[in-house]
């Protein structure tokens, strides 16, 4: 493993504070005090953007609101974002807490309900809820983002027309990624937080076909497996960094026990790929400096 230098800054962190999902099983959630202490350590180490994910973060709406407010008001972060499957987002929550949220991203792998059921995301209300969330974001000044994982069941789908209607400021399109030891086991042997992804895998050519069909959209931001591996800083529910690069998934020690830098030195984070894939973009709803979708001033890239 190549260790990171002592000057590494965890500029953008994806914090999976829960693995519980309304479509799967339950898992550990840290205490409010530990979460706040860990987030403060990350800010002091150079974090400028936090993304709350899961599991499904809206299963804990009060905790999620607390985390968003803490990161904006107490820590003064440039950007607070959330990734959700969208099913539990409500107008009431948005009206009460949107002031502390810069970006709300919704995961949607298909606009066809039968396809969503096959993938495991079917609810019967996916598309209607997407438009509701987009309306709330527009009303409250939150940037609306769309995330799609391209897999066996949706790589032939043409999603362009509906994406244009939704008008997200970014549409992140990922090639489904196999992580050894994380999502490659047989269903009956899986840990409660994991699922078998082998049956969903597609070839690079299939992913390119999907991308070619949608690349004319200004909001389109594709990410192949080569761009995804080791280019995200992922903090799990135990406040440990995860390394999802080549080989088996590995876990650092907890940042509360050893500090941020020591934990970072135990995982790989490819800063160059982070930049290449557009990891720095116009991520604050108050930003006035960006030019076009996903733009960033190169002088902001401080390492």
From TrEMBL:
One of its GO terms (molecular function) is catalytic activity. SUPFAM superfamilies: Radical SAM enzymes (SSF102114). GO terms for biological process: defense response to virus. Residues 1-212 form the Radical SAM core domain. This is Radical SAM core domain-containing protein. Pfam families: Radical_SAM. PANTHER family: RADICAL S-ADENOSYL METHIONINE DOMAIN-CONTAINING PROTEIN 2 (PTHR21339), S-ADENOSYLMETHIONINE-DEPENDENT NUCLEOTIDE DEHYDRATASE RSAD2 (PTHR21339:SF0). It comes from Mycena pura. The keyword Metal-binding applies. Keywords: 4Fe-4S, Antiviral defense, Iron, Iron-sulfur, Metal-binding, S-adenosyl-L-methionine. Its cofactor is [4Fe-4S] cluster.
């Amino acid at each position: 493993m190549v260790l990171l230098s002592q000057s590494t800054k965890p500029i953008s962190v994806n914090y999976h504070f829960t693995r519980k999902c309304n479509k799967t099983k339950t898992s550990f959630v840290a205490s409010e005090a530990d979460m706040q202490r860990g987030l403060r350590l990350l800010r002091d180490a150079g974090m400028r953007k936090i993304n709350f994910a899961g599991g499904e973060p809206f299963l804990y709406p009060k905790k999620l609101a607390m985390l968003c407010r803490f990161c904006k008001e107490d820590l003064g972060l440039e950007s607070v974002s959330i990734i959700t499957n969208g099913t539990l987002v409500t107008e009431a929550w948005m009206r009460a807490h949107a002031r502390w949220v810069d970006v709300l991203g919704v995961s949607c792998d298909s606009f066809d309900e039968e396809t969503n059921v096959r993938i495991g995301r079917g609810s019967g209300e996916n598309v209607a809820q997407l438009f509701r969330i987009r309306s709330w974001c527009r009303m409250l000044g939150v940037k609306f983002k769309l995330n799609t994982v391209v897999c066996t069941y949706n790589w032939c789908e043409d999603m362009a027309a509906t994406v244009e209607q939704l008008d997200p400021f970014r549409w992140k399109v990922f090639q489904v990624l196999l992580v050894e030891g994380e999502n490659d086991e047989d269903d009956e042997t899986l840990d409660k937080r994991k699922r078998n992804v082998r049956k969903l895998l597609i070839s690079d050519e299939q992913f390119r076909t999907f991308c070619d069909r949608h690349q004319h959209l200004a909001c389109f931001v594709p990410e192949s497996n080569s761009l995804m591996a080791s280019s995200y800083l992922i903090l799990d529910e135990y406040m440990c960094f995860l390394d999802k690069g080549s080989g088996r998934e590995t876990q650092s020690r907890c940042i509360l026990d050893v500090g941020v830098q020591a934990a970072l030195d135990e995982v790989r984070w490819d800063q160059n790929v982070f930049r290449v894939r557009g990891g720095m973009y116009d991520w604050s709803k108050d930003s006035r400096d960006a030019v076009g979708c996903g733009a960033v001033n190169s002088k902001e890239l401080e390492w």
